[in-house]
Specification:
Layout (H helix, E strand, L loop, with lengths): L1 H60 L4 H5 L13 H10 L1 H32 L5 H13 L6 H9 L1 E3 L2 E3 L6 H8 L6 H14 L3 H8 L4 H12 L1 H16 L3 H5 L8 H6 L1 H9 L4 H36 L5
C-alpha cells in the first residue's frame, strides 16, 4: 500500500515536472518567435525606409507651396499644398506629346528586343551549332562588361555610319538604338537572351516533338507553340526593357538623342527652362518644380509595374534568375 502511494506520488511529480517543462518550452518558443519576428520587422522597415524615403520626400516636396518651402517648421507634410508645380512642369515639359513619343519609341524598341532576344534564346536552348558555348560565353560577357567601356567605339560607329563614300551621321536620331537592338546588341540584350535561354530550357521537348510529328516546321513551332508558352518570360523581359529604355541615359547621351523624343532628356532641362521663362532665382523653389517633373516621369513606369506585377514575378521565378 505504501509503495503504491509512493509510485503514485512519483508519477504525479513527474507529470507536474513534464507539464512545467512543456509550458516553459512553449513560453521560450513563443518569446523566440516574437523576437525573430520583431528583428525581421525592424530590418524590413529599415530597408524600406532607406529605399522609399527619397521617393516620399520627392512626392511630398512636389506639393509644397512657396510658403511651405521657406518655413523651417514644415517637414514632409505641406501646410498649404498646391498643384502649381505640376501645372508648370506639364506646361514646360510639353508633357503629354513628349510622353506619347517616348512610349511609342520605348514600345517599338521593346517589341524588337523581344523578337530578337527570344529567337536567340530559343536557338541557344534547343539547337546545337559550332562554337555554341563560346557564343553563349559572349552573351554572358555582354551582361558583365559595363557599356562605358565601349562608349567611344559606339559613338564613332554611328557618327560615321556607312561604307566608303556612303557615310552618314545617325546622331540626334533613334536609329542607333534600333540598329543595335536588331542585331542583339541593344541595351541589356545579353540579359534578355539569357532569360529566354533559361526559360526555353525548362520547357519540355515533347511539345516540339509532337509539333514535328504533326508536320510543323521550326518557324511554326517557334511562333505558334513556343512563344505562347513563354508568356512569363515575355512579360519579364518586357517590363525590364520598358523600364530601362524609358530611363535610358547612356544611349541617349552617347548619340545625343533629341529631348523631343525622350521625356527624361526633357526633365534634365526643366529647371533651366522654368528659371528663364518665369524669372525664378530661388534654387529651393526650382527644386520643387523639378520634383514635380520627376513624379510625372515616374507615373507611367509605376503604372506598368503595378499592372504586370504578378506575371512579372512569376516570370522571374521561372526563368531561373531568382536571387
Amino acid at each position: 500500500m505504501l509503495s503504491s502511494r509512493k509510485i503514485s506520488a512519483s508519477l504525479q511529480g513527474f507529470r507536474s515536472s513534464a507539464l512545467y517543462n512543456d509550458r516553459k518550452s512553449k513560453v521560450f518558443n513563443s518569446a523566440k518567435g516574437f523576437l525573430l519576428g520583431l528583428f525581421r520587422a525592424v530590418i524590413i522597415i529599415g530597408i524600406s525606409y532607406v529605399i522609399l524615403a527619397p521617393v516620399i520626400g520627392i512626392i511630398s516636396n512636389s506639393f509644397f507651396s512657396t510658403q511651405d518651402s521657406i518655413n523651417p517648421m514644415v517637414f514632409t507634410i505641406p501646410i498649404s499644398p498646391t498643384l502649381d508645380r505640376y501645372a508648370m512642369a506639364i506646361k514646360y515639359m510639353d508633357y503629354l506629346p513628349i510622353l506619347g513619343r517616348t512610349l511609342l519609341y520605348t514600345c517599338g524598341v521593346t517589341l524588337l528586343q523581344l523578337l530578337i532576344c527570344s529567337m536567340a534564346g530559343y536557338g541557344f536552348a534547343r539547337y546545337n551549332f559550332p562554337l555554341k558555348k563560346l557564343w553563349f560565353a559572349c552573351i554572358v560577357v555582354m551582361i558583365v562588361v559595363p557599356l562605358q567601356t565601349i562608349q567611344f567605339p559606339l559613338y564613332m560607329t554611328f557618327r560615321y555610319f556607312g561604307i566608303g563614300s556612303h557615310v552618314t551621321n545617325l546622331h540626334k536620331t533613334a536609329w542607333p538604338t534600333f540598329i543595335l537592338t536588331a542585331f542583339g546588341c541593344g541595351l541589356k540584350s545579353g540579359l534578355y537572351i539569357y532569360i529566354f535561354t533559361q526559360f526555353f530550357r525548362g520547357l519540355p521537348k515533347e511539345i516540339e516533338e509532337a509539333a514535328l510529328v504533326d508536320g510543323a516546321n521550326s518557324w511554326y513551332t517557334y511562333f505558334r507553340i513556343m512563344m505562347p508558352n513563354a508568356s512569363p518570360a515575355i512579360i519579364t523581359v518586357a517590363v525590364f526593357s520598358i523600364v530601362w529604355q524609358y530611363n535610358d541615359a547612356f544611349f541617349a547621351n552617347t548619340f545625343n538623342m533629341p529631348s523631343t523624343l525622350l521625356i527624361t532628356r526633357k526633365l534634365d532641362t526643366l529647371i533651366n527652362v522654368i528659371a528663364n521663362a518665369e524669372r525664378i532665382n530661388s534654387l529651393r523653389e526650382l527644386q520643387l518644380y523639378f520634383d514635380a517633373g520627376v513624379v510625372l516621369v515616374l507615373i507611367p513606369v509605376v503604372a506598368i509595374y503595378i499592372i504586370l506585377q504578378r506575371r512579372f514575378i512569376e516570370g522571374v521565378e521561372r526563368s531561373g534568375i531568382v536571387g
